[in-house]
Amino acid sequence: xxxxxxxxxxxxxxxxxxxxxxxxxxxxxxxxxxxxxxxxxxxxxxxxxxxxxxxxxxxxxxxxxxxxxxxxxxxxxxxxxxxxxxxxxxxxxxxxxxxxxxxxxxxxxxxxxxxxxxxxxxxxxxxxxxxxxxxxxxxxxxxxxxxxxxxxxxxxxxxxxxxxxxxxxxxxxxxxxxxxxxxxxxxxxxxxxxxxxxxxxxxxxxxxxxxxxxxx
Length: 216
Description:
Radius of gyration: 19 Å
Helix content: 25-40%
CATH architecture: 3-Layer(aba) Sandwich
Oligomer: single chain
Largest sheet: 7 strands, mixed
């Protein structure tokens, strides 16, 4: 019988920067999903990751020891009154799409952010992007607005949609914001383990099924 895949959802560390950048670089070169034009150097990208990880969750998914995708939250806007808001980002290897990894990442990020007392989360999506739009709808986000022709990349102007979702009672006063490092590690481990269970295993090939059914 073939071994099942080993799926691990965990917090990123600075040493993951090379594998994470390997996933991100094709999005820069070949898509308008990110508005960056140039692939950052590894030291620059590692520094970005470290800056985000000081305050917010930065997650990676490994399948059989190979980086399948990553996701993180970061501050939505800089003014003090926005401090309880966070923007979410998810990037996957193309071959790992449609396996529930994006949903697992979003679930884990939002649960950790709740522990940090974040009150609203946002997804900023270039439009049209049906898979991302469907993910946000399925995760309870609503479309807050569309900025028309707000970015120019790969020879065309691009619309950007903003999706939003509250994480708590929108009318109650907020609690003091916590850094991700202040959330108990055992609570984060529990959230990640539960979210990892949402990721679908690859279907067995017809050949492997025939092998399993073969009589001795």
